[in-house]
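Priority: medium. Attachment 1 of 2:
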């Protein structure tokens, strides 16, 4: 067996955003914007026509244009192993149609898509959202075609996070329980 190692150092840009919204409200809002990848729906997709495959993949995306591939509940692991109470979740999400626009130019992009988003509750009961900018991570492939799609992906991820935060804020500021209207009488 012949083996050759080639190391490629690259730079990434990690973005951290803090929001004064509750963890439960934020994660619920985020998940409401994501479609779901249906593994059963992917069976045999390689035998579909390109149009049929695009149609199947497009149906899996949510209103954000992204679908959830996987959730990893770090908080549950921390609570069970370290008896530390923490709320933290990693979301693996994306859009296979966007990914294919990049992997057709360089299949190695598949190492970094779908992207990941980490959400954890802060000590002040807000949320910290962390992710690597796709454009920075994928710049290592030195492909103008990949870079163009990755830059648009940056904007899509930023919008996803902003909309989730706005929805969570609306939920938080909405009064709980019945609201009595003023009668207007004195």
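Attachment 2 of 2:
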């Amino acid at each position: 067996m012949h083996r050759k190692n080639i190391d490629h150092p690259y730079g990434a840009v990690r973005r951290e955003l803090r929001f004064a919204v509750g963890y439960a409200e934020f994660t619920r809002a985020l998940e409401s914007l994501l479609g779901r990848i249906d593994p059963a729906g992917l069976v045999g997709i390689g035998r579909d026509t390109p149009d049929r495959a695009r149609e199947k993949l497009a149906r899996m995306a949510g209103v954000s244009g992204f679908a959830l591939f996987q959730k990893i509940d770090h908080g549950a692991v921390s609570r069970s192993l370290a008896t530390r109470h923490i709320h933290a979740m990693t979301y693996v999400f994306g859009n296979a149609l966007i990914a294919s626009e990049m992997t057709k130019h360089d299949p190695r992009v598949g190492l970094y898509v779908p992207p990941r988003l980490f959400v954890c509750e802060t000590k002040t009961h807000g949320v910290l959202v962390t992710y690597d900018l796709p454009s920075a991570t994928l710049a290592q492939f030195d492909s103008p075609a990949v870079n163009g799609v990755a830059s648009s992906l940056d904007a899509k991820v930023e919008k996803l996070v902003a909309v989730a935060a706005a929805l969570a804020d609306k939920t938080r500021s909405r009064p709980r329980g019945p609201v009595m209207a003023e009668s207007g009488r004195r």
